Amino acid sequence: MPQFSNSPPALPSLILRQFLKAEAPADFERALALRLTVFVEEQAVPLEEERDEADETALHFLVLHPETQESLATGRMMAYQEGCQMRPVAKIGRVAVSKSMRGQGLGEWLMRQILNAIDAERFDQAILDAQVQALPFYEKLGFMAEGDEFLDAGIPHYRMRLVLS
Question: Which CATH architecture has domain 15-163?
Fold first, then answer.
């Protein structure tokens, strides 16, 4: 798998935190607050669908502004047993970028950090469920849509996959 760039976008030096919820509850609450803003407030995802049990075991990512400590972007990844496959795949989810930072390369930079972590954990594949409007973003990172369109929280999605090995 190609190593993804660790150089941040043309932004101030960013702070990237990787953590489990139990080990960094304050960071988790900051990531969750950004998710609630993006998904619940902006996209009208029901609150009860935004939070799930995967938060307990997922590896979370949080990007902070170095001076203001503002939460700029977040995402998570976890092992996911897909069907009857022998090995689990890495499932990426809850990727969100603050409205003020969209279109500046931060989402792509965060995804590359998540993919580096997935590679370090030696997963063969990564999957995610992408909103239809975000398909080109994930395709640029090498993900391919598969299967039929489906609704998640009333929003059209496609399952996407990236083969890493």
Answer: 3-Layer(aba) Sandwich (3.40)
